[in-house]
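yo

u said u wanted the structure for the complex thing, so here. seqs first:
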Amino acid sequence: MIALKKSLQNLFYYPSAILGILIVLLLVFTAIYAMIKIPYREAIRLWRGGEEVWYQNPKFAPPAWFNLFSSKKYAESFAVKTSDGSMTKDVTPGAEGTSTMSISYTYEFDSDYYPQDMILYISSKYTQKQPFVSVEWLTPDDRKIRIVNTALIQKQTYRFSQDAKLKTKLRSDDVIPALFSDPETGHLIKGTYQLLITGATFEPDSDINLEFVSHGQVYGLAGTDHARRDLIVPLLWGAPIALAFGLLASLGTSVLTMVIAALGTWYGGWIDELIQRITEINLVLPFLSILIMIGTFYSRSIWVILGATILLTIFTGSIKAYRSIFVQVKESAYIEAARAYGASGSRIVFLYLIPRMIPLLIPGLVSSVPAFVFLEASLALLGLGDPVLPTWGKIIENANANGALYRGYYYWILEPATLLMITGLGFAMLGFALDRVFNPKLRDV
Amino acid sequence: MSVVTPTPTESMGVKKTSHIGMFARVSRYALMRLIVLFATVVVGVYLTIMIANMGGFVDTIMRGEIRERVTQSIAANPTARQMDPAVRKQLIADTIVQEEKRLGLDIPIAVRNFRYLSNALTLNLGRAINMTSDSGSKQVRLILLERLPATLLLMGISQLFLFFSCILLALNLSRRYGNFWDKAVVALSPTSAVPPWFYGIFLILIFAALLKVLPFGGMVDSPPPSNPFDYSLSLMKHLILPSLALVLSSFFLSIYNYRTFFLIYSSEDYVEMAKAKGLPSRDVERRYILRPTLPNIITNFALLIISLWTGATITETVFVWPGLGRTLYQAIGLYDIPIIVGSTIIYAYLLAMTVFLLDFIYALVDPRVKVGGR
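structre next:
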């Protein structure tokens, strides 16, 4: 124990170890933060959610902080609604239960690029007579554009960019740029725009509520994907999943490998022989292909894949390495002493043989974490990731499937890739330093 | 590697007999290894088949698929549409039975597994469900063998380059132990924790998307150039990024490992002795450092290649390289079970061949194998 403590103190002489520890700690904090901030069920609801959850977000939008590094500003996304007062709504009652209302939203538009789209979600309450709205758009140069006049049903979605009548009226196929630019020059106009909706209801209890959503070109801290999902959810939740998968797999494989190697060496005979043969067979079993088969035929659940990974990784070259060391340790005097006082086989294996190897176990355990983290990402990239969980690999898969590199959505691949890389490097650097601390043979070279 | 120079300690007189003896030794060793490895492959392939067909789960899926396909094709058939419903139902049932028989689903699973095993070992891998080879065949063997050269080309080039460049650089570094480059390699060795496809994504991003100097993926330009010279030029251009990705992912760690071996061995007494004798440093390196470390290095390299065979699946997918790995990826998407099982078996064969080849080289370079015969 004291030796272990001393070795760990030596660790701080290695700058790579300190950096590695910092990265690992940061990952652990991110994982904890993610699990507290977005509970598991909520994360899955968000990740699996479609248009109904994410309708407020633009598609394929890079993160909003892109604007900090760009001299030309992209339009940001926003959503306002009457129900929470972010849009003003004035109701004037009229005769016989009718009323007119005026709903407006005024905002400053100072981006250099047009937003992707603008959408009105209108919900109304009536029993017989449909309410009526008229939507107008006021530009900074005091033009007033009539967008649409329509009678309402219970729930209605109006997309500015897809209104054929509006296209003819504006003499342009692209409605959004036409709304934001000078009709003569075609240049974008910055300034105060106003959306004005005048509504009329014809029953006492009738009411109109609406939500105005402007899909910008950038969104949030991490941007969005093809399904309008905020990438921050899978980026945050990728951390606990990657850590859990990587640590459990490496812990499972290294501990089991060591126990099996110790048992084989101690009991010898057919057990040892069997372990050797299994190791040789396992060497010709194509690891990834078998995982792919399991993923396609049985289950894509991350836990099944984890179990299969551990099973297939136990019997590899490292079992031979452990075996050769155990063979030496088996002959040492303290084992002889234990035998002499009549210790049982299992006592010797678990209390004397295995603890002796812990210094060797730790570096191997830490260094093998990245391989498993990347394995999960690799399987996700092949389309065999857990269908439920948001992981970094799934983001890369989605991005790859949607041609992110060809179409220039670099952020979409770079964000999860950077996180994966940092995770991998963090554990690799720490493991590397641990290896040098615990393996005196390597220390001098 | 074909001729092994005798060690300097061997006297000149027994040189000839020792050559013959060595040949017998190596061939006996090779034969033994071949038998053992074949037995290993048989067990490995049987396990693969068992996993692929455990509990008849795959059969259920295949049966469902056959039913759907037959029902649809008969529903779409104009003559069948005019039939009496009962007759048509009978026709559907008969066709399903026929189709199931064609795919061998009527035999009990235990027997089928053994039949699959002998079929698999002879590479008689059956017919693909959805995929076809470029020549239009539905034979799994043809589909896979057609893709094999592409994989071998990519792997071969990158592995050979990796092996020789790493050994040379490692030798160089071990000579200049502790200088800037040496420290840089030590510091960079954790980068090998990142798999090749990952480097691939970054390489595509830099060289294809941003700089636009190299292609995004594929194996040759489309349409392929008819002139053989242009063809190989185009092939080379497409090879650069995937092989670079494969090399990069294990480059620094390999150098580091080899360098460590060299350093451990170069502090041995006999090396000091050779230096003291005044041998040129080239000779010292070749005979006294490189030679005894080779077995270690080859073992290391063997494990690396084995891990890379699996890594190449995804690298090929990322680079749209038309090899085995990409075929496997496509088969997953199309749920083409014979292809998935077939490529797993081909991979098992490739791994066994790798193990055998490296064992063989190992026997050639390690004089200790001579003593016990095995």
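The longest helix of chain B spans residues 228-266. The CA atoms of residues 100 and 276 of chain B lie 77 Å apart.
cya
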